[in-house]
C-alpha cells in the first residue's frame, strides 16, 4: 500500500535545517517502499488514497499527506456532532480498535443495538479520518445510522455534544456487546458485608451482561449512599459510570435584599441584605436569610415575590435557580411556626378607594395597595376571629398618638399577660373605632366604619359577617381575604411603611466584576458533596415502608481508563435557562484522583493526562462547537508497527495540539487550550511515576 505521511512542524516556516528536511523525506521514501500492517492484518487503504488527497510542501520533494488531521463537514448545525466525533476519533485505544478487525465482535442479535450498523458506520468514518489526505469528510451515512438509534438527532437542529456523545457510546456498546445472551442476575441484600466484596459483586454482575470495548475503556464504578431522615436506614449500591457530570460551583457572589414580616404582629417589617452565590439555588437564599434574621428553631420562612401589591409567586422549590430573581423584583419572607400539622394560613390583601378617570369622568374605585399580610388561624369560628387577627398583624403599623401611645407601650412592657396586651392593642386603634369582643358581635354597623372583609374563593366576593361562622373547605390552601379600608383608618396606620418594599438589588453603574474562576477539583468536590434529594425524587425506605426525602452521597469507587468529564454549564428550571461561562482551571498533564477514589485495593493508577476538549462558544440561543485534540503520534500509530519505528527516529514532539473547527484544522499552542468554553474533557490513564 502506497502510504505517505506529513508531520506538522517539519516545514521551512519553523526554521528547519536542510539536513532535517532531508532526513524527513528520506523516511517518507522508505515508508513508500514498504508495507503497512494494521493490528497484524493487511487492510487495504487504497479506497481512501487518491492523488487529489495529497498536500504538497516545498518543491521537488514529492507529495506528502496528512494523517489524523482531517476535518468534518458541517451538514447543517452538526458542529456538536463533529466536535464529539473528533475527540472520540483521537482516542488511541478507539483508533487502534476500529482500524483493526473489529467486525468479528459485532453483535447482530442484540435487540438494543442496530445490528452493527452504527458500529460499521462509525468504523468507516474513523478510517476515513485516519486515511492519508486532508480533504474533509461529510458524515452523512454516519448521521443517518445514528438517527435510527437516537431519533432526536434525525433533523438539523442544534444539540448538546455531551448528550450526543452519551448516545453514541451507548449505541456503540450495544452493537459491540460480546454478550450474546444476557443472564438474569438478581441483586442480593449486601447489608453487613464488606464494601469491597459488595462492589466486586456488583461489577461482576454488570460485566456479565455488558462486555464491549466501550465498557473496557470508558466505564467505571461509583458508590451511592442513601440515608433515611427518619430511621437512619443506610442503603449502599454500586453503579457503573460512563462519564462524570460535574456542577460548576459559583465563586461570584450576589447581594439580595428581602423584607421579613412577622405573622403574629410582634415586629415591624425589616429589610435584610444577604450575600449568596450568583448562580446558586433558592435554598442558599433561605439559609443565608435564616441566619441573618436570627430565625428560631421552631420557625420557617415563606418567601414570595410581590408584584402590584399581590403575591406573584411563592418561592417554595429549594432547587430552583436564583437567576429566576431579577434585581428589580421585590421579595418578602413571612416568619411562620414550623408545625407538624398544617395550620390554616390567612392572606390579607388591602384595598382603598382611589380616584379613577373613565371616559372623561372621575369616579372612586377600590384598588389594591400595600404589602399582603399573612397570619395563622388554627381555630376558625366566625368573622370576628378574622378581624382580631388582622388588627394584630396591623399593630406594628399603627401611627403613634402623643403620650397615650407611649403610656400604652410602657403598659405592655410592665404586664406580659394576654389580657393587658389585648387592651393595649385595642386602645391604640382609637377610642371610638376599636371595640371589645362583646361589642364586635353586636354592633356590626359600627364595625363597618373601619374595615370590611370579603372572601374571594367564589365567583363573586362574599362579605364576611362578624357573627357568622366560617366554613373552610381546604385547610391546606391559604384563605384569601380582601380588606377594604375606611379613609379614617388609612390616617391611623402607616400605609407608607405598609407599601414600601425594597428591590432585591439596586443596580450600580460602572461596576466591573472580575472574571469568575474555579478549579476542576472544586467541581469534583461539589459533585461528591452530600445533599438531600428533591421532592420529585423521593426514596422509598424499606424499613419505614414510606417515601422520604433522603440525603444522597456519591463517591468514586473504580476509575475508568478513559475518563470523560462533562462540565454542567447549562442550567434549566421551570421558568429559566442559562449558561455558565465560568473559567474552569483543569489540569493538563496530571489530574490526580487518588484522594477521590474510595477503593484503595486497586493496582491501577488514578492519574490522568488530558488529550481532547469539546468546546462550546456562545449562549443558550445559539452557539458553536469546536474541539482541541492532542495528537500523540507515538500512541496513535500503535497499529502501524513499521511506521511507529520510523517516526520515533525523527524525534517527534510528544504533544501537538490542534483545533478542529468543522472542516478546518489549525495547530494551537498548549497555552491556549484552557478557555471558559471548555465543555467536555477527555482524559486517559497514565501509570504512576515510581
From TrEMBL:
Its EC number is 3.4.19.12. One of its GO terms (biological process) is proteolysis. Pfam families: UCH. Keywords: Hydrolase, Protease, Thiol protease, Ubl conjugation pathway. Residues 422-447 are annotated as: Disordered. It comes from the Eukaryota. It catalyses: Thiol-dependent hydrolysis of ester, thioester, amide, peptide and isopeptide bonds formed by the C-terminal Gly of ubiquitin (a 76-residue protein attached to proteins as an intracellular targeting signal). Residues 70-686 form the USP domain. Residues 424-439 have a biased composition (Polar residues). GO terms for molecular function: cysteine-type deubiquitinase activity. SUPFAM superfamilies: Cysteine proteinases. CDD domains: Peptidase_C19R. Belongs to the peptidase C19 family. Recognizes and hydrolyzes the peptide bond at the C-terminal Gly of ubiquitin. Involved in the processing of poly-ubiquitin precursors as well as that of ubiquitinated proteins. This is Ubiquitin carboxyl-terminal hydrolase. It comes from Citrus sinensis (Sweet orange).
Amino acid at each position: 500500500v502506497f502510504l505517505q505521511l506529513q508531520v506538522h512542524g517539519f516545514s521551512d516556516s519553523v526554521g528547519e535545517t536542510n539536513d532535517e528536511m532531508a532526513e524527513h523525506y528520506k523516511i517518507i521514501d522508505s515508508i513508500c517502499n514498504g508495507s503497512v500492517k494494521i493490528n497484524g492484518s493487511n487492510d487495504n487503504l487504497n479506497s481512501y488514497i487518491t492523488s487529489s488527497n495529497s498536500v504538497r510542501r516545498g518543491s521537488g520533494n514529492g507529495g506528502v499527506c496528512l494523517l489524523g488531521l482531517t476535518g468534518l463537514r458541517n451538514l447543517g448545525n452538526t458542529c456538536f456532532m463533529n466536535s464529539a466525533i473528533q475527540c472520540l476519533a483521537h482516542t488511541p485505544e478507539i483508533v487502534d480498535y476500529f482500524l483493526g478487525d473489529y467486525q468479528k465482535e459485532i453483535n447482530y442479535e442484540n435487540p438494543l443495538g442496530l445490528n452493527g450498523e452504527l458500529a460499521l458506520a462509525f468504523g468507516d468514518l474513523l478510517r476515513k479520518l485516519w486515511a492519508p489526505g486532508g480533504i474533509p469528510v461529510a458524515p452523512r451515512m454516519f448521521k443517518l445510522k445514528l438517527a435510527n438509534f437516537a431519533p432526536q438527532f434525525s433533523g438539523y437542529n442544534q444539540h448538546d455534544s455531551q448528550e450526543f456523545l452519551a448516545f453514541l457510546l451507548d449505541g456503540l456498546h450495544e452493537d459491540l456487546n460480546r454478550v450474546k445472551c444476557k443472564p438474569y442476575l438478581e441483586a442480593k441484600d449486601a447489608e453487613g458485608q464488606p464494601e469491597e466484596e459488595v462492589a466486586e459483586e456488583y461489577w461482576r454482575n454488570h460485566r456479565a451482561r455488558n462486555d464491549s470495548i466501550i465498557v473496557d475503556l470508558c466505564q467505571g464504578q461509583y458508590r451511592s449512599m442513601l440515608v433515611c431522615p427518619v430511621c437512619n436506614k443506610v442503603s449502599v449500591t454500586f453503579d457503573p459510570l460512563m462519564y462524570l457530570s460535574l456542577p460548576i460551583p459559583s465563586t461570584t457572589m450576589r447581594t439580595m435584599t428581602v423584607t421579613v414580616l412577622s405573622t403574629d404582629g410582634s415586629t415591624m417589617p425589616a429589610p435584610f441584605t444577604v450575600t449568596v452565590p450568583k448562580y446558586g439555588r433558592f435554598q442558599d437564599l433561605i439559609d443565608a436569610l435564616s441566619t441573618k434574621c436570627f430565625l428560631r428553631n421552631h420557625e420557617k420562612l415563606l418567601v414570595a415575590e410581590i408584584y402590584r401589591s399581590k403575591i406573584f409567586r411563592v418561592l417554595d422549590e429549594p432547587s430552583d435557580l436564583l437567576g429566576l430573581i431579577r434585581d428589580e423584583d421585590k421579595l418578602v419572607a413571612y416568619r411562620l411556626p414550623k408545625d407538624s400539622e398544617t395550620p390554616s394560613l390567612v392572606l390579607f390583601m388591602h384595598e382603598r378607594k382611589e380616584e379613577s378617570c373613565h371616559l372623561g369622568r372621575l369616579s372612586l374605585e377600590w384598588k389594591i395597595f400595600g404589602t399582603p399580610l399573612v397570619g395563622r388561624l388554627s381555630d376558625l369560628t366566625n368573622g370576628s376571629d378574622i378581624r382580631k387577627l388582622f388588627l394584630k398583624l396591623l399593630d406594628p403599623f399603627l401611627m403613634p398618638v402623643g403620650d397615650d401611645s407611649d403610656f400604652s407601650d410602657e403598659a405592655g412592657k410592665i404586664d406580659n399577660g394576654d389580657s393587658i396586651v389585648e387592651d393595649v392593642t385595642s386602645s391604640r386603634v382609637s377610642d371610638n373605632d376599636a371595640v371589645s369582643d362583646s361589642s364586635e358581635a353586636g354592633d356590626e354597623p359600627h364595625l363597618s366604619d373601619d374595615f370590611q372583609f370579603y372572601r374571594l374563593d367564589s365567583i363573586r366576593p362574599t362579605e364576611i359577617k362578624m357573627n357568622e361562622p366560617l366554613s373552610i373547605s381546604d385547610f391546606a390552601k391559604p384563605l384569601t381575604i380582601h380588606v377594604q379600608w375606611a379613609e379614617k383608618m388609612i390616617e391611623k396606620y402607616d400605609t407608607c411603611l405598609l407599601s414600601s418594599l425594597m428591590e432585591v438589588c439596586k443596580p450600580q453603574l460602572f461596576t466591573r466584576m472580575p472574571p469568575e474562576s474555579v478549579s476542576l477539583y472544586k467541581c469534583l468536590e461539589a459533585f461528591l458533596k452530600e445533599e438531600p434529594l428533591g421532592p420529585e425524587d423521593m426514596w422509598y425506605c424499606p424499613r419505614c415502608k414510606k417515601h422520604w426525602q433522603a440525603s444522597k452521597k456519591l463517591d468514586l469507587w473504580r476509575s475508568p481508563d478513559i475518563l470523560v468529564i462533562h462540565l454542567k454549564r447549562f442550567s434549566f428550571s421551570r421558568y429559566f435557562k442559562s449558561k455558565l461561562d465560568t473559567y474552569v482551571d483543569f489540569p493538563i498533564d496530571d489530574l490526580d484522583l487518588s484522594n477521590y477514589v474510595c477503593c484503595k485495593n486497586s493496582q491501577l493508577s488514578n492519574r490522568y493526562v488530558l488529550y481532547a476538549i469539546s468546546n462550546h462558544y456562545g449562549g443558550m440561543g445559539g452557539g458553536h462547537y469546536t474541539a482541541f485534540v492532542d495528537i500523540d503520534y507515538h500512541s496513535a500509530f500503535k497499529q502501524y508497527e513499521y511506521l511507529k519505528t520510523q517516526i520515533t527516529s525523527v524525534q517527534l514532539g510528544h504533544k501537538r495540539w490542534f483545533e478542529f473547527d468543522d472542516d478546518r484544522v489549525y495547530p494551537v499552542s498548549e497555552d491556549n487550550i484552557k478557555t471558559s468554553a471548555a465543555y467536555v474533557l477527555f482524559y486517559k490513564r497514565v501509570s504512576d511515576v515510581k
